[in-house]
Here is the input.
Amino acid sequence: MYYAHIAARPGLVGRRSLFVDLPGHGISDRPADFGYTLEEHADALAVALDAAEVGGAEIVGHSMGGAVAIVLAHRRTDLVSRLVVTEGNLDPNPPRTAGSSGIATYEEAAYVRGGGHARVLEGVGALWAATMRLADPLALHRSATGLVRGTEPTMRRMLEEVKVDRVYLQGALSGELPDRESLVAAGVQVIDVPDAGHNVMFDNPDAFAAAVRG
Here is the structure.
């Protein structure tokens, strides 16, 4: 739902576009024995791309999806020719918010069965609450804790080192991107999107579509 209106815009319409619900999210399966780490999400995405016979794709990821996209490019460079990361998580242990870092403060049982999921739904905005209701609480909690824990090397280091074309979009209303200079020095094109917060594709779709087009 975050991208369909972008793929239909002039300059992008006509491309083959794949929209992927990660495991436990949207209408994808909800395996209880899945760890939902960033690495496991990236491997699941790789399986989907392999099944679709896709190689050298342009991968567009937002927030946690941006982190998954970075890990995918690091682990399977054959699948990725270009990364467009929008407000993706780059560092472990981010400041606490109502989102993933807030979910991760709960123990798994307390979140899934102890009322934590309902309390988080009350504290987030309507847009994210709508998507969270389509996700499995267990998957949300494990994904959130995996995102807060991060990866080794970090997502930031992977993004700096991966040898593909890279774009990072930061909503101007979200504030300054930490350690922006290190990304630029590594060849990442960092774009500040005016009049946009975390959900750049909704707040400023023209700028978002232009960045995706390249």
Observations:
- The chain has a mean pLDDT of 95.
